[in-house]
Queue: 2 jobs
Job 1
Amino acid sequence: MSKGISPTLLWQRLVKESAHQLGHVLGLRHCLDWRCVMASTHDVERLDLKGEEACLAAVSLQSPAPRAPSHL
Ligand SMILES: [Zn+2]
Ligand SMILES: [Zn+2]
């Protein structure tokens, strides 16, 4: 293991990436909010910055209730 990376940090990355991929399984798409767990992060610096939860915008996409796209 490379030094300087704590097990806690690695665990947090694992949790965030797992939540992100789980979000895709649930039908969520990438979010533009960099703090959102569904933000597209392909470098660890941003992964460390973002949170472990999806924002309301990302979560609302998985609403099971079918709604007509009234704003499009
Ligand atoms: Zn993704
Ligand atoms: Zn989001």
Note: Helices lie at 7-25, 44-49, 56-60.
Job 2
Amino acid sequence: MKTQIKHFAIVSLSLVIFTSCTSFNKKKELVQVKDSEIFLMTYNLENLFDTKDDEGKNDEEFLPRSIKNTTYYQNLCFTRTSKRFRQECLDKDWSETIYKRKISRLVDVISRVNDGNGPDVLIAEEVENIHALKDLAAAMPQFNYKTVELIEGPDERGIDVGVISRLPMKSSMLHVVDFEKIKYSLKTQEQLTKERTAHLTKKDENSLPEFTLAREDVSDIKENYPTRGILQVELELPDGESLYVLGAHLPSQRSSTGYRRVVLEKLSQIKKELPEKALVFAAGDFNISAGEDAQKRLYGEQAARDWVISHKIGCKSCAGTYYYHRKREWSFFDVFLFEKELTNGQNEWQVDPNSIAVFNKSLYQFNRWGSPGRFGNGKHSTGVSDHWPLVAKLVRTPNAEQKEDSKENSKTSEEVTQ
Ligand SMILES: [Ca+2]
Ligand SMILES: [Ca+2]
């Protein structure tokens, strides 16, 4: 009996030690932010909807069929103008099982980036609400995400841009895009030409106003409709500085070019209003196709006046993040727009161009043609999102002054060794 008690005590003690060791290890295993490296990821999650009915939003497609089998919901689905959307609304069974499958496949992708450590900052598009974003972050506890932010915007389906990060959040706000307001605030081509000519006669080319969008450039805007807002999140870098993230999801190719021009203009305006020395980058799904960019120069001219575009400085052998089967066309729908100071050596934090990459290391990301595999109704063995994410790294390098200091220090230590 005594031996049995002794044995029981030893087993219990070992269990206690084992349990405390594992919980200690678990704590220790949480991924921490590095002092001099921030890993960024932008990813269109393709409809991360929860399974509940969000009031005032057209989210009926993403409900379990058990709820949808009522005249109320069937009537709602019948209000969809397109036959395809009507059918999807009626047929899709967005159950808890499918929702969990969607999240686990997204986690499979996200957890593979940054050598399996997950991104430090994830900008996620097509998220229905903060609850869905929290469910996603909660499914990756090892990544130690401190910031999970999404502010409800006016989009009719209810999709928004969210930010998840290991960095703590200092502030956040949503910029609502009003197409009409921005359109009429723009100058006419005539006014812009006059301003340019005035500068030219002064022969002061350095003070020439940069290319500015003219009202004529957005003359295709015929109606004002509620679109996704731009999510501004101020994060705290390891050195205490602020990093402003502008998460964007521009109108799709179903809308004409002017709508995307307006959101690019809005991003430039927001950037100008931020503190002068603020570190800022924009990221998201810009919905600009390769064909449209070649013709209308949205990245090449308009965005390039204020930003450095990720696929122009890196990712040289990448085809794109989105594939249009009908047009057989790859496009960079997903991009990072870096402020110039992040690429020209003027700031301690710099983008590493070699780190810019399209990420597709999860088997779920492919369809049978080898392009991004849609999740759709979640019934197929692969498929997670119709976009492939884009990743990039910010690296902190000592500025010129600090380099001088370290040179001095190494000199002294060399002298000492001699
Ligand atoms: Ca919902
Ligand atoms: Ca929403």
Note: The domain at 30-49+97-178+226-417 is CATH 3.60.10.10 (Deoxyribonuclease I; Chain A).
